[in-house]
Amino acid sequence: MKKIILTGDRPTGRLHLGHYVGSLKRRVELQNSGEFDKVFIMIADAQALTDNADNPEKIRQNIIEVALDYLSCGLDPEKSTIFIQSQISELTELTFYYMDLVTVQRLQRNPTVKQEIQLRGFAENNDAGDNRPGIPVGFFCYPISQAADITAFKATTVPVGEDQEPMIEQTREIVRKFNSVYAPVLVEPDILLPDNNACRRLPGTDGKAKMSKSLGNCIYLSDCEEDVRKKVMSMYTDPLHVQVSDPGHVEGNTVFTYLDAFCCPDHFSEFWPEYASLDELKDHYRRGGLGDVKIKKFLNSVLQCQLAPIRERRKELEKDIPYVYDVLRKGSEQAREVAARTLSEVKHAMRIDYFDDEELMRSQALKFKAE
Ligand code: ATP
Ligand code: MG
Predict the structure, then answer these.
(1) Ligand 2 center to residue 115 CA distance, Å?
(2) Average pLDDT, the chain
(3) Probe residue for ligand 1, chosen from 6, 7, 9 as the CB with the greatest number of ligand atoms within 8 Å
(4) Helix crossing, 254-262 with 292-317: angle to 10°?
(5) Which of 6, 54, 115, 189 has minimal Cβ neighbours within 10 Å of its Cβ?
(6) What is the pLDDT of residues 184-198, one digit of tens each?
């Protein structure tokens, strides 16, 4: 069986460090590994519209931002097909058919959807006096549309952050249901989480559980050097570590979580040779006598050396925006061909391929003749 990757991001803003360690970095490695027959990278604008219906301009503007982030991180249009979700109408069709295979109750149990409903401030019940907006149906159903995205390309591997686990599980269920009810057309995908635990759900600079565009607690890949420094220097650490001499906590301390995610032994020899490893640094912090400012300065150096080449490539790409749109247009054309093939197999399996089925016409003609 072919090994195929599909993954993507919502164009609700520029991409941040969470995207980078959760999925983007891995995609580039996988793309370059030669291990995969195809790599599809999707800008999920239709999904972004499910909770931004009143702000289409935001989505429209951010498509190019996400594409620039992709290319500056090393996604290569010669090796990966980069496309825009809404341009593949086959995905919408598949979503509609898959809706028949999922219950409202199953969707309501999806923990990520539950969390995101709360995060976005949608009213969950019909309580009188609750003035919050209700849940858009499209938003509620987005796990089904994600199943359509993944299965349209027969993806075997989906590199994503931990928040996507329930989505991949739901996709697998839809695949099993479809294949058993109709015919074995669809492929069950596997999730590929980062090996490094700190990367699976990178916290925000404010210490909140997840760095997220919607929470405004992000360091963006395209932030300038000074903005990154300011954000690092104001990061949440250990509230109990008041004096430098106080013993500090490493768990739940965002600066250390970021070091877990980004730092390698070479960074010590380059920027802070007093310590041989992160474990040594952590031990000192736990004992007390090590101030937050020093660690933040080190983290800043670690991040800047990874972000600098991305920032530079972005500057170059920004000079040729028509090229970036061309990449997206060509990618969308290629993606559409693949999705159309799957959709036609799906329709055949579902017995809704009336005009392609000569046998149907012949048998109906015979039936009416006999009557
Ligand atoms: P939004 O707030 O619009 O939902 P987001 O910041 O959550 O945006 P998405 O576009 O929903 O980003 O996520 C795209 C991909 O990046 C997914 O694979 C997701 O798992 C991963 N990802 C996003 N944020 C993080 C994070 N903080 N840590 C690890 N992975 C993340
Ligand atoms: Mg999200």
Answers:
(1) 10
(2) 95
(3) 9
(4) 50
(5) 54
(6) 999 999 999 999 999
Dump pLDDT digits (tens) for 269-297. Answer: 999 999 999 999 999 999 999 999 999 99
Angle, CA of 49, 55 and 59, to the nearest 5°: 55
The predicted-structure confidence for 291-308, as pLDDT tens digits, reads as follows 999 999 999 999 999 999
Ligand nearest to the CA of 218: 1
Structure tokens that stand for 53 in this block: 């219906």
Is residue 215 within 8 Å of 271, Cβ to Cβ? no
- The proportion of the chain whose per-residue pLDDT surpasses 70, expressed as a percent, equals 100
What SS3 state is found at 238?
coil
The DSSP bridge partners found for residue 43 are: 9, 84
Amino acid at position 332, single letter? S
Atom 19 of ligand 1, residue of closest alpha carbon? 161
Cβ–Cβ under 8 Å, residues 189 and 1: no
pLDDT band at 174 (very low <50, low <70, confident <90, very high): very high
At residue 131, does pLDDT exceed 90? no
Paired tokens of 318: 């920004």
Angle of helix 56-73 versus helix 292-317 axis, rounded to 10: 100
Nearest to 157 by CA among 327, 341, 27: 27
Q: How far is the CA of 272 from the centre of ligand 2 (A)?
A: 35
The encoded tokens of residue 84 equal 């825009």
Q: Is-above-0.85 flag for pTM?
A: yes
Burial code (b: 16+ CB inside 10 Å, e: under 16) for 210-249 equals bbbbeeebbbbbbbeeeebbebbeebbbbeebeeeeeebe
Q: Could you give the C-alpha distances from 68 to 2, 183, 208, 225, in angstroms and in order?
A: 29, 40, 27, 18
Please write the tens of the pLDDT for every residue from 3-29: 999 999 999 999 999 999 999 999 999
**Spatial separation of the C-alpha atoms in residues 304 and 322, rounded to whole Å:** 29
Q: Which of 37, 40, 101, 108 is nearest to 70 (CA)?
A: 40
